[in-house]
Amino acid sequence: MVAVNGLTVSELAGEVDASPDTLRYYERIGLLPPPPRTAAGYRQYGPDAIERVRFIKQAQRFGLRLADIAGLLAIKERGLCPCGGTRRLLQDRLTQLDEEMTSLSRLRTDIRAMLDQEEPLRDDDGSTCGPGCGTTGLRIGRLQPRSTVVPARRPVLVSRATTEHH
Questions:
Q1: DSSP per-residue letters across 94-153
Q2: Cα 11 to Cα 22: distance, rounded to the nearest angstrom
Q3: In this structure, what are the phi and psi dihedrals at residue 37, rounded to the nearest 5 degrees?
Q4: How far is residue 49 from each of residues 61, 64, 152, 157, 161, measured CA to CA in Å?
Q5: Residue 144 pLDDT more than 60?
Q6: What is the 8-class DSSP label of residue 31?
Q7: Under the phi-then-psi rule, with left for phi > 0, alpha for psi from -120 to 50, and beta for the rest, what region is 16?
Q8: pTM over 0.90
Q9: Rounded Cα–Cα distance for residues 23 and 137 (Å)
């Protein structure tokens, strides 16, 4: 164990706005290389850890998965530029966001239409639903009770001796 003049896990956590547990997790899954430790066993991170964790957090903010981030870091560790891979991942993420936004827009339109119905949703006053109830679009009143599962009957085994005498 080497005494290094670096940052403890708590100090690094404060620098990058992450919890110490998050940093230990990153180390456990290989996103953060194990740092040298003091004689007492304290982690001692160098200044490169700050940049690495900031990269990880920014990539997560963009919605990249930890496995993808690990791949980009591995490319960088081999001395290569991960820009091409990063660009591809971000293009895929942008496409995914566009699809999610389209879906959310449709959902918003459906909810708005439900709220704007001629017969509005009523407050929960204990009244029963009728034909004009605003929840009919949700089909709440039409739910059927769950069917009960009836266990299969086991076949009855009849011996030949029993059937021959009857």
A1: HHHHHHHHHHHHHHHHHHHHHHTSSSPPPP-SSPPP-TT-GGGGGT-TTPPPPPPPPPPP
A2: 13
A3: -125, 155
A4: 18, 19, 61, 72, 82
A5: no
A6: S
A7: alpha
A8: no
A9: 47
